[in-house]
Write a structure and sequence with these properties.
7 strands; 3 helices; single chain; Aminopeptidase; alpha+beta
Amino acid sequence: MEGVEAADPAGVEALALIAELDAALQAITGDSGDSSFDPEDVRGPRAVFVIARDADGVAVGCGALRPLQPGVAELKRMYARPGSGAGTRLLAALEERALALGYEEMRLSTRRVNARAVDFYRRHGYGDAPPWGKYVGNAVSVCLGRRLLSRRA
């Protein structure tokens, strides 16, 4: 059944999707990005890891939120299998979960060379955001963010 559901980031399907993401990032950027993700970070009370499924119930994408700073969630390990069409659905579901968890903004960092990802987020309303942590002064990364608006408003 098609949808987006919370999942264990160490589950079999999650690990398979993360491995696909790692391989794709390694091919695009020269770095898998796995050193920037700790599954424990998305198991806390204001965090979540989700899996998107297609109409047949097959896992086709994943993503996660973790606290970054008060009112701000960081988007991590966002991946949609090419051709699945799950990216927009995943992002919308994560934004809704962020709102439900009390966040007012979402931020992420990706490599500038990952033009497909940068373009995807910009199309969905993400603009330049101030860098944080290891991204401060890092010329290869781009930090993006978006204020969250309630879908009910």
